[in-house]
Design goal:
Helix 1 packs across helix 2. It contains six helices and 52 strands. The chain is globular. A hairpin with a 2-residue loop joins strand 18 and strand 19. The chain is mostly beta strands and 583 residues long. The termini are far apart.
Amino acid sequence: MRTRLSIILTAALLTLDASAATINIPIGSSIAFGIRAAREMVRTGEAQSVTITLEPGIHRIYEPLRLRPEDSGLTISGPGSVISGGIEVTGWRRQGKLYVADTPMFNGRPLDFRQLWVNDRKAVRARDVSDFEQMARIRSVDKEGHVLWVPRKSIPSSLLKQVPQGLEMVLHQMWCVANLRIKSLTARGDSVAVSFHDPESRLQFEHPWPSPMTPDTGHPSPFYLTNAFELLDQPGEWYHDIMAHKLYYYPLPDEADGNFVATVPALENLVEVVGTPERPVKNVRFEGICFAHTTWMRPSTHGHVPLQAGMPLIEAYKLRPQIDRPNNHKLDNQGWLGRARAAVEASWAEDVSFEACNFNHLGGSGLDYRVGCKGGRVFDSEFSDIAMNGLVVGSFSPEGLETHLPYSPTDFREVCRGLSVEQTEFHDLSNEDWGCVAICAGYVSNINISHNTIHDVSYTGISLGWGWNRDLVCMKDNKVQANLIYDYAQHMYDCAGIYTLGNQPGTVISENVVRDIARPSYVHDSNHWFYLYTDEGSSNITVRDNWTPEEKYLQNANGPGNVWQNNGPQVSEAIKQRAGMRQ
């Protein structure tokens, strides 16, 4: 009997010379087995390097593609090709104004998901407001009772009768939003007590930052409700009844005759590049590929209470008494973090690069260089329609390290370093988790972020650094240069076009253009936004020659050694014109 590997090689067109081979993967053939074939060719000496070329079209996968040290030197190319973690929903039936389909099956089981794309457009998960300017506001917080009080008129009466399975509150909290699964709704007079499932209930009422705002602050936190059939009342919305195994969609006017193609995500991750400290994956290139259709399901099972930049809190609480920290102000809280999934993830890898690639229609983050990554380049690519962060790189405190403690690993190989991000566009990002950013770099070294264009993001454009302290750690020599950032802060404030944390000797932020911040009415403090923002512990950073319409900057609890030179509207027109992607 022929093996599946031999079948894939029969289906593919294979060319070979003394040093290089090409494997062509038609639609419907296995990319994973093409990767195995390439690995074996190099191992047996048939070729020194292999390029896998994907046929244009959608390549649907049923598990992540995994590249290991044995795959070093591989190129995967595919102009016009899509590596998709989604499946098409079929069997739609008309039911009044709605269409209904059975829950799709995936790998033998009914599928759960948090996104739906219709005709290549992200549909809206059913919610109680179509205009976020109309969101209701909370009334008070009962931390001991683990209850939020909201106006009774903000809760549809049908939800008070019986709380639907999966109903969520999305709560605006200063610089983050929290996804809270609703456990009960109890009406009392003109108010409703809202309680939540654990573990997010515990986290929500124990963590001090970011906090929900109450009326006595003058900016009570807004919220919206989502994921109930009773909220499905606008064209373009959808609802998945996981208990009844039914998917409902309210079509847009031009889709009312059923003329639409719907896709739901089945995977959280499409590609994993995983080496070890001693044997990293080296010299892998992706060219011309679109990575699409992923989800991130943790909010559906655990809720989502982030600290900042979408990093989920695993445990967090207030400190009494506060901790004295030499060289830093006192610390009033503790927190340990997890990390969301991304469409493409790399760990312990050298020179893993992406050229002319697209990352879009994603329910987690886009591309994540997680740990131990050296070099690599993201060039001439596009990140769009992403629920969380666009590009993530570096540690945001290891799982066992309290997030305010300095991170200085004994083995510097852990630190992501030398990545270059250039000539890439980031837009329509953080469109679910509003506290996420376009480029999110944590504990990194020698990172080059240059000549990118960033716009239409919910919070900050570029976030560089981590730790909230001024101790000397592993960050140094980072460069953020000649980027164009505009229409940022679509939903959140306490933000900037470019934002930093921590001690970063040799880091230079220069010749960027930051302009046109959004003006949502519901932010926690309408004046608390900035073009440039060096936050807690930012030290030894040079900020110079950045064009902004005015000098609206913040230097909060900074350490020593920062240099600010020639930033503002007087910066030369030549610098202004060079920012962003080169034409």
